[in-house]
């Protein structure tokens, strides 16, 4: 039986690939990932919960990373760096996969590098416009780099690059939810706004929503708080009892698709996969890029949709109730123009990335 290892920090495209690969006979998928959401947290990561629920073997990697600001976890994180390489090396020796598939993120580096030392081939898929440090390091050791955006190639070894677009699960187009409570809320929702901070969540956006709930009195609001539960954010959200407010820690692809189908406007960070899905679902948006994202990648992601004229950008430093209300009002007043621009841009996106990647994988193992 052939074996492949899937690793990296971007769960959404990894799940899209896994969905397809699970249909292949005589192929075992192993997932190398993080069991917990963040340093010092005991909250199980979304990837651990989803991957194990699909009966895929999950191998936890404990490694460190270079943090962008000094915290009480900085030194312990640096001390963990060797452990990630040792763990990856041992796992790979024991299971000898035919191929490693990386989806970026600091955790993928020890896996790809250990694979290279052992003579195990690797490929990578990069979702962001400006690749992060992990992908740039991995590019030295992988055979092929698949890209979502053509302009990413200038940061990497262009001879290794192939532009295929981003990977997505077909359930993103589903209008049915897997949650009865969410389904009930969606049925009664009018003028729905989704506020989303990504899988892990954004404490900054969560605090803003908690402090400014009255700003959304004329709307129904779904608030995706995140799985990390920073400072008890999800616990706080569950105490808010308003008929027009619904909080959830994580939206799976099917639920996310159903919410996007109903939402009039999305307010969110601008991670690579979020931006792709907003474009794919033609959703007018207000994007608040994470200011400390690697190399300003979230701002560059947001500028793609802003440049296509169906998203507005508000910097975190400038976010205020006044600025947000002005942005919401401007989108609503010109909604047909925003929808038209989104529709035109969506037609330019390649939509067969998963199939192309699967064909490459099956021809390589």
TrEMBL record:
Keywords from the named record: Glycosyltransferase, Membrane, Transferase, Transmembrane, Transmembrane helix
Listed transmembrane segments: 73-94, 100-120
Claim: NAD is one of the keywords in the record: no
Species: Candidatus Curtissbacteria bacterium RIFOXYA1_FULL_41_14
Residue stretches making up the Glycosyl transferase family 28 C-terminal domain: 193-348
Domain Glycosyltransferase family 28 N-terminal: start-end pairs: 8-146
Domain of life: Bacteria
Record has Membrane as a keyword: yes
Gene Ontology molecular function terms on file: hexosyltransferase activity
Protein name: UDP-N-acetylglucosamine--N-acetylmuramyl-(pentapeptide) pyrophosphoryl-undecaprenol N-acetylglucosamine transferase
């Amino acid at each position: 039986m052939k074996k492949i290892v899937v690793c990296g920090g971007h769960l959404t495209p990894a799940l899209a690939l896994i969905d397809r690969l699970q249909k292949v006979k005589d192929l075992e998928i192993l997932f190398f990932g993080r069991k917990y959401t963040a340093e010092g947290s005991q909250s199980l990561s979304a990837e651990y919960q989803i991957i194990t629920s699909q009966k895929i073997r999950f191998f936890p990697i404990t490694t460190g990373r270079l943090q962008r600001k000094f915290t009480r976890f900085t030194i312990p994180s640096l001390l963990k760096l060797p452990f990630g390489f040792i763990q990856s090396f041992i796992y790979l020796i024991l299971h000898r996969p035919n191929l490693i598939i990386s989806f970026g993120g600091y955790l993928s580096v020890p896996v790809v590098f250990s694979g290279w030392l052992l003579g195990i081939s690797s490929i990578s898929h990069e979702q962001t416009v400006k690749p992060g440090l992990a992908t740039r390091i991995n590019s030295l050791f992988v055979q092929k780099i698949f890209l979502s955006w053509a302009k990413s190639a200038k940061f990497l070894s262009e001879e290794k690059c192939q532009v295929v677009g981003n990977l997505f699960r077909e359930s993103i187009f589903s209008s049915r939810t897997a949650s009865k409570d969410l389904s009930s809320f969606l049925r009664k929702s009018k003028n729905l706004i989704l506020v989303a901070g990504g899988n892990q969540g954004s404490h900054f956006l969560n605090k803003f929503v908690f402090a400014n709930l009255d700003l959304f009195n004329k709307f129904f609001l779904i608030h995706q708080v995140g799985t990390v539960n920073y400072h008890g954010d999800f616990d706080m959200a569950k105490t808010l009892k308003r008929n027009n407010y619904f909080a959830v820690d994580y939206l799976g692809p099917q639920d996310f698709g159903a919410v996007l189908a109903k939402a009039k406007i999305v307010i969110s960070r601008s991670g690579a996969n979020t931006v792709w899905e907003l474009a794919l679902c033609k959703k007018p948006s207000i994007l608040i890029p994470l200011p400390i994202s690697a190399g300003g990648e979230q701002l560059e992601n947001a500028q793609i949709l802003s440049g296509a004229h169906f998203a507005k950008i508000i910097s975190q430093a400038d976010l205020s109730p006044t600025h947000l209300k002005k942005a919401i009002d401007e989108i609503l007043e010109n909604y047909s123009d925003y929808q038209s621009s989104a529709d035109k841009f969506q037609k330019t996106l390649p939509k067969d990335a998963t199939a192309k990647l699967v064909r490459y994988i099956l021809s390589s193992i």
